[in-house]
Amino acid sequence: MPEEQAIDPVAIRRGDTQYGQGYTESLFTRLNKVDPHFSALMQKFVHGGLYDREVIPHKVRELCAIAALCTSGRFSQLRSHFNAARSYGAKDEEILEVLIQMSTYAGVPTVLDAIKVHQEWVDQGHTMSGFGTR
C-alpha cells in the first residue's frame, strides 16, 4: 500500500479558491491512494504551478480550460471548471457562450453534449460531480 502523503498547502489554497473548500484535499487524498508520486507531480505542476501563473486572468484561464475540455470531449471535468470560472467572476452566459463558440472547432454534436452538462450543472445549483468531489 502506498505511503500516506501530505498535500501541498499551495495546491490546497489554489484548488479551494477555484473549486471550493475541501475539493483539493479530497482530490489529492484519492490520488495519494492511487499513486502518491503522480499526486505530488499534479500538486506541484498544476495546482501549485500552472494555476498560480498570473500572465492571464484566472477567469480567462478557466474559460480556456472549458473550451479545451469541450473540444477534447472531456465532459466529466467540465463541472469543476464551470465552478472555477464562476469563482473568478464568469457568468453562466459567458460559460455557455464559450461552449457555443466551440461548435466551429469541435462540431455541433460535441457542443450539444457539453451544453447538456452545463444545463444539468445550472439545474443542480452549480454542483460538481466527478473524480474530485467529496
Task: Provide keyphrases for this structure.
mainly alpha, 2 domains, AhpD-like, 134 residues, 8 helices, globular
Please tell me about this protein's structure.
The protein is mainly α and 134 residues long. It is 66% helix and 0% strand. It folds into two domains: 9-52, no CATH class; 58-123, AhpD-like, CATH 1.20.1290. It is globular, with a radius of gyration of 15 Å. The two termini are 22 Å apart. GO terms for molecular function: peroxiredoxin activity. This is Carboxymuconolactone decarboxylase family protein.
Estimate what percentage of residues fall within beta strands.
under 5%
Largest sheet: none
Give me the CATH superfamily of the largest domain: AhpD-like
The number of distinct structural domains comes to 2
Tell the overall outline.
globular
Distance between the termini: 22 Å
Q: How large is the radius of gyration?
A: 15 Å
Give the overall pLDDT as a whole number: 88
Q: Order of helices and strands, N to C?
A: HHHHHHHH
CATH topology of the largest domain: AhpD-like
CATH architecture of the largest domain: Up-down Bundle
> At the first level of CATH, what is the class of the largest domain?
Mainly Alpha
Number of strands: 0
